[in-house]
Amino acid sequence: xxxxxxxxDKIFAxxxxxxxxxxxxxxxxxxxxxxxxxxxxxFSLGAIVPMFVAFTSLYQKVxxxxxxxxxxxxDAERTATVKAEAYRLLCEATKSPTYQANMHEWGLKNLKxxxxxxxxxxxxxxxSILWAMVTGSWTAFEILCEDLFxxxxxxxxxxxxxxxxxxxxxxxxxxxxxxxAAFFKNDTGIEKALEDQFLDALALFRNVKVHKAGIADHAxxxxxxxxxxxxxxxxxxxxxYKIEIEGNNVRALxxxxxKPGENLAKAVDHWIAHQP
Length: 276
Prior knowledge:
- Helices cover 69% and strands 0% of the residues.
- The protein is an all-alpha fold and 276 residues long.
- It has a domain at 9-16 and 23-46 and 121-274.
- α2 packs across α4, α5 packs across α9 (197-212) and α8 (188-194) runs antiparallel to α11 (247-274).
- The chain is flat.
């Protein structure tokens, strides 16, 4: 059985990158901070598996070194003395300036070895993590849209009270765009942030996972065909086919939430500051 290539190095090595937009409204600042913390949690999902493998491998390594230092056989009992020596060696290892980088590289390398040695055994787990990163990214952005809207409504209640509109909702691209268009008419900054095609791609992948269990439907096939900002999956471009999620796509999709999120926060912050 041949092991799938998930291109896991493309996603398990990335970090949250933000330009840290200059914001002035305290509530907007707090909302954006929550958004970035949520995105950090998304990226942490990608790091947990290789880091777990790395820590397990490191402890086994220092344990064998401890046995060697104490003149004991590899199969000797792990006494308190052995554990204390292993802990000392572990503390020394963590003091290295390249410790974090080495651990990540080591964990990724060992994870790939395990996946090759046990083909297919890790596929479902890796796929679940990749999909969770996609759905988590959309949820973070969706919540950001709702909370920024609330910031503006609290800051300028008379403006919002004067607008006749059905109950604002933020559970889809369509309703988010309609709600913001109604209350922030002709605001080019907000419009640009919400019309980003990367958001369309992120929403399509998220929707096909949570509503169709990752099986392509007409909405996904037609939607992805009209978007050129994210490479389509290698397989899954026909109705009824399982979408094979992999690192290259997920890296782009997760990043898709951050830039529009920054731009939306800056635009709402600017609106609050200049709206009488």
